[in-house]
Amino acid sequence: MKIALAGDHGGFHLKGVIASHLESKGHKITDFGSYTPDPVDYPDYAFAAAESVARGENDRAILLCRTGIGESIAANKVRGIRAALCLNETLARTSRTHNNANVLCLAGDYLDDATSLRIVDVWLTERFRGGRHKRRLDKIACYEALDRKLDKACPEKRHRRSARTAARRRSGAAG
Questions:
Q1: CA 74 to centroid of chain Cα atoms
Q2: Strand blocks (E) in the chain
Q3: Which domain CATH number covers 114?
Q4: Nearest CA among 162, 164, 142 for reference residue 153
Q5: Could you confirm whether 86 is annotated as catalytic?
Q6: Range of weakest confidence among 43-47, 128-132, 144-148
Q7: Quick one: 148 and 71 in the same domain?
Q8: Could you say which of 30, 61, 79, 108 would form a disulfide bridge with 103 (CB–CB 3.0 to 4.6 Å)?
Q9: How confident is the model at residue 131 (pLDDT cuts 50, 70, 90)?
Q10: Do residues 11 and 65 lie in contact, with contact meaning Cβ atoms separated by under 8 Å?
């Protein structure tokens, strides 16, 4: 599997541990940085790795920072990305089986190396279940598109918009 790795200074140590682990299992790694423990801006690295997944250059990405929160927020701004902050194996499993997460975010300050590697292994081996979970992801993709031309493919979007407009009118709000 082709995996993008990226992190800020808070995830620098863990990124090295995970890269070695993944390479030992035969995965192809693309390292988007950071390359030193010096302070950097995490969005730069999260966007680069997430965009490589969205473009199909990498199958998945793993992002690392102190809490995993900033990286997950940034990655989820990239269209087509479903980033999940996972602090244990159960969350990693569910992020794949229910949410088809294509980006894993880990918290360098809250996870030891061994736990992080177990989370990574679970996340990489679990498969998306589809079914009702696919229907939910399809709704997210429709909302994400925010393109009026796609309204026909996303009838829920038209309904939500008209429901919000009606609610504003009832409350006397403008718009």
A1: 9
A2: 2-7, 28-31, 60-65, 83-85, 103-107
A3: 3.40.1400.10
A4: 142
A5: no
A6: 144-148
A7: no
A8: 61
A9: confident
A10: yes
Cβ–Cβ under 8 Å, residues 92 and 119 = yes
Amino acid occupying residue 22: L
The reply to whether 27 belongs to the active site is no
Query: Is residue 109 within a helix (H) or strand (E), and if so which, with residue range?
Result: none
pLDDT band of residue 135 (cuts 50, 70, 90) is: confident
Tell me which of 21, 98, 133, 142 is the catalytic residue: 98
15 falls in which pLDDT band (50, 70, 90)? very high
Lowest mean pLDDT among 36-45, 47-56, 69-78, 142-151: 142-151
- 10 Å CB burial of residue 65 (0-12, 13-18, 19+) is buried
- For the entire predicted model, the pTM comes to 0.83
Check whether the bond before 52 is cis (ω within 30° of 0).
no
The catalytically annotated residue of 65, 86, 105, 154 is 65
**Residue 116 belongs to what domain range?**
2-125
| Three-state secondary-structure class, residue 37 | coil
Beta bridge partners of 106: 64
Asked whether residue 29 falls in the same domain as residue 68, the answer is yes
CA dist 154 and 54 (Å) reads: 21
Q: How confident is the model at residue 91 (pLDDT cuts 50, 70, 90)?
A: very high
